[in-house]
Design brief:
The chain is 32% helix and 22% strand. The chain has 251 residues and is an alpha/beta fold. The chain has two domains: 81 residues, Ribosomal protein L30/S12 (60s Ribosomal Protein L30, Chain: A); 160 residues, SPOUT methyltransferase, trefoil knot domain (Alpha/beta knot, 3-Layer(aba) Sandwich). It has a six-stranded parallel sheet with strand order 9-8-7-11-10-12, with helices on both faces. A four-stranded mixed sheet has the order 2-5-3-4. β3, α2 and β4 form a beta-alpha-beta unit.
């Protein structure tokens, strides 16, 4: 599935990816447009051997600290680059043609960048074809998101949909069953038939899916967790859901 360069918004802050896994994965992605890499001298030697075309600026770790958020664990890497351009929901449908099993994950108003990064990592681990988020209520690509994704942000195509309900309807027209995760559903996910094309919708913690999004689902299911626990962190829940959906067909 083709990934393209992003276009900068007027007065937008530069995108800076940090951390070894996130930076190396971005440098290896031919669709990621690179500005420059700020790194320590020890890292520069390795980068020059592997990526001689990348412009380098050498700084010590303290100076790199000053370029990034206070809690950023950068490991001596700070990469100035362009965001990846989202794909369309129609692209996802075209790519699914002819596939017996296909998985898409939809996030309804999940707003924490680190949660989304962790979810992207699970998507890559369990063979998800694309991640769909609502454009208005989802954070843009960021260093924190990429760090949590540990390099997998480069691997999972993302759809930024203006209207999630419309995106769901398009998926349904192309043969996807749309499953909503709801802690109050009668059926548990382990009991459902998992063959075919599925799009799974996960809402934000506490609020869950919005009404119109939930009503657009073909069915709702829940995780079979102890009644002593009300809910799980959305990234933890996503990992369990995606494993459950993948275990019968991934080898």
């Amino acid at each position: 599935m083709k990934r393209k360069f992003g276009t900068e918004q007027k007065n937008a802050k530069p995108l800076i990816l940090y951390g070894r896994h996130a930076v190396w994965a971005a440098l290896q992605n031919p669709h990621r447009r690179i500005g420059k890499l700020v790194c320590t001298a020890e890292n520069a030697a390795e980068i020059s051997r592997k990526f001689p075309q990348v412009p380098l600026e050498i700084k010590n770790k303290k100076d790199i600290d000053g370029l990034l958020p206070n809690d950023a664990v950068h490991q001596g890497f700070a990469l100035y680059c362009h965001p990846l351009e989202p794909i369309s929901i129609e692209d996802v449908c075209r790519q699914s043609e002819g596939k017996e099993n296909c998985r898409v994950l939809i996030l309804d108003q999940v707003t924490d960048p680190q949660n989304i990064g962790a979810i992207v990592r699970s998507c890559a681990a369990f063979g998800v074809s694309a991640l769909v988020v609502q454009d208005k209520n989802s954070p843009p690509e960021s260093g924190a998101m990429a760090k949590a994704a540990a390099g997998t942000l480069e691997l999972v195509p993302t759809v930024r949909a203006t209207n999630l309900t419309r995106a769901v309807e398009i998926l349904k027209k192309h043969g996807f069953w749309v499953v909503g995760m709801d802690g109050y559903a009668q059926t548990t996910i382990d009991k459902m038939d998992k063959n075919g094309k599925f799009a799974v919708v996960m809402g934000s913690e506490g609020v869950g899916m919005r009404r119109l999004v939930e009503e657009s689902c073909d069915l709702t299911v829940r995780l079979p967790i102890s009644d002593k626990v009300e809910s799980l962190n959305v990234s933890t829940a996503a990992a369990i859901v995606l494993y459950e959906l993948s275990k019968d067909y991934m080898v």
